[in-house]
Amino acid sequence: MTSNVGVVGLGAMGAGMAGSLRRKGHAVHVFDLRSEVAQAFAADGGVACMSLAELAAQCPVVVSVVVNAAQTEAVLFGEGGCAAAMQPGSVFVMCSTVDPNWSIALEARLAALGILYIDAPISGGAAKAASGQMTMMTAATPQAYAAAGPVLDAMAAKVYRLGDRAGAGSKVKIINQLLAGVHIAAAAEAMALGLREGVDAAALYEVITHSAGNSWMFENRMAHVLAADYTPLSAVDIFVKDLGLVLDVARASKFPLPLSSTAHQMFMHASTAGFAREDDSAVIKIFPGIELPKKP
To answer: What's the pLDDT band for 1 if we cut at 50, 70, 90?
Structure first.
């Protein structure tokens, strides 16, 4: 079964998700503040909407793939936002990394308007989003799943259903981001020490990626360092935000997170040093006395 689906935000993840929906036969309506990006998507099939309200009025399922809670608020409740235009019984799928308590509250706010809600953070990176192989960590009412289940399945290889109300999806994503941020910081620290000790960077990468110390983040992000390519697939400031959320959640229950705290400070250091919008692997640039690989 196919239907009209709206996608708000055509960044690295949203563009791939919209493409996956289109391949599955859904009529994909898109909105992005960069109108040329939306028009480019529509040129290959789909509909570029001129406003959020236009998109929301036509789509029983709206998928929001923006950066944070503040942008999601604007998508829903800003001037000409989606909430006022969505029909009762339609579904809003929220894919950002946010405070779980905010997500819980949003479900109640939308329920008061007759709108169903799916707490649905995502993981896997741009390549997996584009191929429909990403992971979704979701929580929602049975009614929301019944209405939007085929849409979720069209975008992701794994759709985890973690609860029958909002919050659980965002909590699991927070824990995922704890690990992702700490692993990137640790990978950068390891590579920096190797460089400081005069180890050949390519040789170190080859050995570690075939040894017990490897991690997905080391293998993925240190490849960016070797290529001297800091194009932001996921920027330093994303982990300033996400690890900040991790620490906020833990602080509320007085739970200690020493590794997360250190990693957060490393990303903060990188951000204030001028690398905020570079790829998150640029956290390696905070280490003194090392010579990083240069572009071939």
So the answer is: very low
Position 278 confidence tier, pLDDT thresholds 50, 70, 90: very high
As beta bridge partners, residue 161 has 138
Q: Are residues 114 and 230 in the same domain?
A: no
Query: Residue 271: which H helix or E strand, with range?
Result: none
pLDDT in tens, 26-80: 999 999 999 999 999 999 999 999 999 999 999 999 999 999 999 999 999 999 9
Cα 70 to the center of its chain, rounded Å: 14
Residue 2 has pLDDT above 70, yes or no: no
Please list the active-site residues: 173
CATH number where 191 lies:
1.10.1040.10
CA distances from 68 to 51, 73, 241 (A): 20, 9, 9
Instruction: Tell if the pTM clears 0.85, that is, is over it.
Output: yes
296 inside domain: no
Q: Dihedral, CA atoms, 247, 248, 249, 253, nearest 10 degrees?
A: 100
Is residue 55 within 8 A of residue 30, CB to CB? The reply is yes
- Reference 61, options 102, 131, 1, 128; nearest CA is 1
Can you tell me the mean pLDDT for 140-156?
Answer: 97
Residues 9 and 85 in one domain: yes
- The DSSP secondary structure of 139-184, one letter per residue, reads EE-HHHHHHHHHHHHHHEEEEEE--SSTTHHHHHHHHHHHHHHHHH
Amino acid at 222: M
- What is the arithmetic mean of pLDDT over 249-276? 98
- One domain for residues 43 and 181: no
- Do residues 136 and 158 make contact, with C-beta atoms less than 8 angstroms apart? yes
